[in-house]
Amino acid sequence: MKKTVLITGASSGFGKAAAKLFNANNWNVIATMRSPEKETELSTLSNVFITKLDVTDKLSIKNAVASGIEKFGKIDVLVNNAGYGALGALETATEEQVKQQFDVNLFGLIEVTKAVLPGMRQQKSGTIINVSSVGGRVTFPFSSLYHATKFAVEGLTESMQYELNPFGIRLKIVEPGGYKTEFAGRSMTLFSTDGLDEYQPSFNKFMGMIDRWPMSENISEVADAIYEAATDGTEKLRYPVGHDAEQLIQTRQQMDDVDFKKMMTAQTGI
User: Fold this and answer.
1) Active-site entry in 11, 16, 20, 132
2) Active site residue 146
3) What is the pLDDT of residues 167-213, one digit of tens each?
4) Is 61 in contact with 111 (CB distance < 8 Å)?
5) Any catalytic annotation for residue 150?
6) Where in the sequence is the domain holding 254, given as residue range(s)?
7) Does residue 132 carry a catalytic annotation?
8) Considering its fold, how many domains does the chain have in total?
């Protein structure tokens, strides 16, 4: 019997690349997205079921999981990939912006996970892969809300191992570095300074660093890591992806807090 994976945020980037890779390896794929009617590529593939799922809408989560199980019988792997980055000085973030960042990156991930767990517990097997970021291990300026959610995802995932491993459910974290996806487009929100002009010079320097960051175009590396996490059968928890992610994480582990902050400050010019 074919295995089945459910992927959130499958309309583009890592999610779409992962959906295509699982499909190429003879998996059933439940490809979820907020606007399934706009999808034209995945809809041409066999054994790919496209359905609506908005991680901020509990009913759409419930319906997507139920319809996916009805279609393929069970869910063996969940890939929590949907997310975005909110950048700017925390003081300038509105209450709505703060709430939305946590609703999508953390609370939505929790709700999707809770929706698939009854089936995984019943079948006494499953793998939950949470797509975090190098930003779940290392921090940058003007990214406090994004880091808060990704650090939370890392802690959540690591802790869930203890309660879910006894049911045969594995937990995994994939940590991409910088890749050319829509994260820097529609998946990024910038705060307005709204009169707090003191932040603007430093923020401009940070955004200049982002513009110069060597983004990789090989997003298939991330899809490969997701697929490895789903299929390697190991207790390995974290999968950093990309030279920059591996290097930054290693550097952070070797430095104390003050030295790392000084290095990051020097690189950004802040």
Assistant:
1) 132
2) yes
3) 999 999 999 998 766 554 444 667 766 667 888 888 888 888 877 77
4) yes
5) yes
6) 4-268
7) yes
8) 1
